[in-house]
From TrEMBL:
GO molecular function: DNA binding
Origin species: Littorina saxatilis
Designated name of the protein: Transposase Tc1-like domain-containing protein
Organism domain of life: Eukaryota
Family annotation (Pfam families): HTH_Tnp_Tc3_2
Lineage, opening ranks: Eukaryota, Metazoa, Spiralia, Lophotrochozoa, Mollusca
Length: 176
């Protein structure tokens, strides 16, 4: 609250604090606290707080939220490149995510897949129409997400198996 507003309303302070709070449309404890702070420090400004200062100003945070609302599909890293913080550094994606979360927004991850052209869509549709009557044939198909097949090298996985519950453990290395 500005000092000038409080000082202008101080002559009204002879009335009960509740009526002054109604005039200024704030809670009565706010008025009490500001009057005490004005008497003690001579100012209504906030006192400096301990802790790490914010990397972004309120204006920069508003810019981040506004740019995200204009283009919600851009990544946090792209928004961070546009925003330079108070120290002149590029803002980190984590800071961008925190600012958006405080505004009840979520960062979206960019799509990481192959972009389909019209030709790809046509080929996929032709394949599905050719295979739509398959019933038993699907049992012999192995989909790539169910199995990993290494043609040229090992993935360095080691599988340990306990044979006959004995204390001997045989280690199988899978090589090509």
């Amino acid at each position: 609250m500005k000092e000038s507003v409080l000082l202008a309303c101080l002559p009204l302070a002879k009335r009960p604090k509740q009526s002054l709070s109604q005039v200024m449309n704030v809670h009565k404890s706010t008025i009490s606290r500001l009057v005490i702070r004005l008497r003690v420090t001579g100012s209504t400004d906030d006192t400096p707080r301990s802790g790490r200062p914010s990397a972004l100003t309120a204006r920069q945070e508003r810019f981040i939220v506004r740019s995200y609302r204009q283009n919600p599909f851009q990544s946090a890293r792209a928004v961070g490149r546009q925003t330079v913080n108070a120290q002149g550094r590029v803002t980190s994606p984590q800071t961008i995510s925190r600012v958006l979360r405080r505004s009840n927004l979520r960062c979206r991850r960019p799509y990481r897949g192959q972009i389909l052209t019209q030709r790809h869509r046509l080929l996929r549709r032709n394949w599905t129409t050719a295979h739509r009557n398959w019933r038993r044939e699907w049992d012999s198909v192995v989909f790539s997400d169910e199995c990993q097949i290494n043609l040229h090298c090992t993935d360095h996985r080691v599988q340990k198996r306990d044979i006959n519950c004995a204390s001997i453990v045989i280690v199988f290395h899978f090589y090509c």
